[in-house]
């Protein structure tokens, strides 16, 4: 109605562009439009949660790739807010699905932040996130774990898998020299090249929040035993 056409790639009206970006942000769970994601994910089984956290992101992300030059300022704001809220929100959670929901918000913040500067790097980050998140959901499903306390029984159920799972979790957190560190390091480098060093610094600090709750999961899985 505002633009007089159906072509999403030819939008020029600022209000229409902003509404589309916010709608896509709500769809994927970017902060501050993320509040539905933890509660919905908590109410789903792990298989459906896996689909919601991975496959459901592809179509909106493809649209983001097409319209990202239209309003770069709002993408930067959404990216910073998502990395901060995603890291902070997961700190006090005990349910694994809620932790993974906040993890999703934080990772999407990194992708949206770099999207306008390097779409290929954003795509690399998305692929890395999809692989790591799928692996995490499948491990939790195999062990029938839905809360942090239930991770203590992982050693008795699947010792070999439990040995490898902390590497996946710490990779999601971006701990070097694991795979998940690479896209985050490249994103920080690109932001610095674009003369956005303050944003790069803030984003790196928010990554420490996410790394903390991944360390919590690793500790519960490897260094605690069920009674």
UniProtKB/TrEMBL annotation:
Subcellular location as annotated: Mitochondrion inner membrane
Catalytic activity reported: a ubiquinone + NADH + 5 H(+)(in) = a ubiquinol + NAD(+) + 4 H(+)(out)
GO molecular function, one term: NADH dehydrogenase (ubiquinone) activity
The UniProt record lists the keyword S-adenosyl-L-methionine: no
Top EC group: translocase
Alphabetized InterPro entries for the sequence: Complex_I_Subunit_2, NADH_UbQ_OxRdtase_chain2, ND/Mrp_TM
Keywords on record: Electron transport, Membrane, Mitochondrion, Mitochondrion inner membrane, NAD, Respiratory chain, Translocase, Transmembrane, Transmembrane helix, Transport, Ubiquinone
Enzyme Commission number(s): 7.1.1.2
Domain NADH:quinone oxidoreductase/Mrp antiporter transmembrane: 15-209
Membrane topology value: Multi-pass membrane protein
Segments crossing the lipid bilayer: 15-37, 73-92, 99-117, 123-143, 155-176, 196-215
Pfam families noted in UniProt: Proton_antipo_M (PF00361)
GO biological process: mitochondrial electron transport, NADH to ubiquinone
Gene Ontology CC terms: mitochondrial inner membrane
Family: Belongs to the complex I subunit 2 family.
Function field: Core subunit of the mitochondrial membrane respiratory chain NADH dehydrogenase (Complex I) which catalyzes electron transfer from NADH through the respiratory chain, using ubiquinone as an electron acceptor. Essential for the catalytic activity and assembly of complex I.
Protein name, entry field: NADH-ubiquinone oxidoreductase chain 2
Source organism per UniProt: Epinephelus bruneus
Classification lineage: Eukaryota, Metazoa, Chordata, Craniata, Vertebrata
